[in-house]
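COURSE: Structural Biology Practicum
ASSIGNMENT: Worksheet 4, Part C
STUDENT ID: 0417
INSTRUCTIONS: Below are two proteins. For each, the amino acid sequence is given first, followed by its structure token string. Answer the questions at the end about the second protein only.

PROTEIN I
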Amino acid sequence: MRALLQRVSNASVTVEGAVIGQIDAGLLIFVCAMPDDSQATAQALAAKIAKLRLFKDDGGKMNLNLAQTGGHALIVSQFTLAADTSRGTRPGFSYAAKPDQANALYEHFIACMKNLGIPVQTGRFGADMAVALTNDGPVTLWIDTEKP
């Protein structure tokens, strides 16, 4: 799986003019399932993200994880994280999992984050979404479970 994390002071997702998910301080997590991913992959990714120390302590150092700050996660499915831009000028998306598999892994990832005690809001799988955010830092990280 691939994930793009952004530490935010606020973020929201709007579908068809209605806000369907929003958070204050926390992480905006864009997530993409790949064909070889499994529920174990989603669980491992959730555990990794929940433990990442991306938030400042009293000394201003990034020493706190999401749970330690009481922050929330806004999780948005984004198949374009699997874009292949190696040929031409139009990205290909054959590296992304098929929709049924991707949706199941997206939902499992959300459940894993909740099971880790992280308050979660979500986007809507497959929807045309407008995502608004205020990146804090800015802090943005890319995680790919296929790479160390």
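PROTEIN II
(use this one for the questions)
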Amino acid sequence: MFGLEASEPAKKSLKIFQENSSKLIVELGAGLGRDSIFFAKNKISVNSLDYTRIGINIINKKILDNNLQNITAKVFDIRKKLPFQDNSIDACFSHMLYCMALTSAELSYLNNEIKRILKPNGFNIYTVRNEHDGDYKNGIPRGEDMFEIDGFIVHFFTKEKVYSLMDGFKNILLENFEEGSFPRKLYFVVNKKIN
């Protein structure tokens, strides 16, 4: 659906990870692993989590095909407690995970879990489709700025919604970008854990 090459947010995030010596990251909602594999090939240790067994099987095949030793992939529901120790991870990355069919309460829980596992000054970098996207307010309303489009529910974000998920974090960057031929309009969000 999104191609095989690493996403632009992953490329931008890699620079942030390298500049801040972030060596151990978690990708939440890793999909088919295009970004996880990209990070691993660039000497970042990656824990890839995704809800689907199919996605994780594809990532594991890519790990074997590329002979990568610094990446693990497992099926996981991010609405549960993240399977990592407190203050143990340098950064979390997710591309469009936050705009899945997750309620505000579930997003707040996830954000608190990310805060728990991040080391002091760790980064939470994520992207979300925003209120300027052509699909916003189209389709079937599902509450909390969620709309069902072609059988798929998308949670759209305003800047206010991004800022509502700042508990324990300081925002470093919030910028617009576009992706795909539609194009999708998104926010690229970089938050840093407050000590």
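ANSWER KEY EXCERPT:
Q1: The domain at 22-193 is CATH 3.40.50.150 (Rossmann fold).
Q2: The radius of gyration is 16 Å.
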